[in-house]
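Running low. Any example?
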Amino acid sequence: MEDVIERCRVTATLMPPTLLQRLLETDADRSSLQAVVLGGSPASPNLLRAATDRLGPIVWQGYGQASPGVIAMLTPDDIVAGHEASVGRPPPAVRVAIREGEIYVRSPHQMIGYWNDPEQTREVLSNGWIRTRDLGYVDGQGYLHLTGQARDVIMVNAEVCYAGAIERALAEHPAVAQAYVVGAPDPETGEAFHAFVVPIGDEPPDLQELARLVRRQLSRNNLPSSITVTRDVSLSASGKPDKDALIAAIR
């Protein structure tokens, strides 16, 4: 990818955060880039700041889904202004509502239903609002923040825990570019978390510091049973982290 950018003098590109991290680790000539748009999964604040420092104010982050389309956009100016912990503001024509912590969207470019699947349509679409199944909140300045996924629930010692909350805690460490957390069966606790962190520089983060970050913010049941430092996270066809491959890696 970095060779293509250098050879073809690419000016604009769309990529997931994992590929952006790889791009920052190379010595390829990136001077032709005028816009880097991130999608697929949210980038950590550390990665957004590092990319802006290295590439300049050209980094954008989009948040959306196939059914409602674009939900929010984080602009280069937003990152420079210190809003990189959010996914940006909704476009003027998009309405966002938070219901019991879950994000609902109403948009002029959303779907009208699933093809030949009225049951799933009723589950997701209600009175013109699309249920995203993502958790989040809108701050006082209108920026949308993601806190996890309603479906991404892990039961540890009968406590409901969310992988997204652990990922956010781990990503606060200054040496972490991205963090991914998966759940797997555990004979003692029912299920357990396993974390994978991508370092932002040459030095790997201290694993005990990472554990303390999680423990300061979340309950003991949210502590990952393992934390693996990796520079190579497999991606799915949609550009999202392949969590099935991560689960396979701990077996």
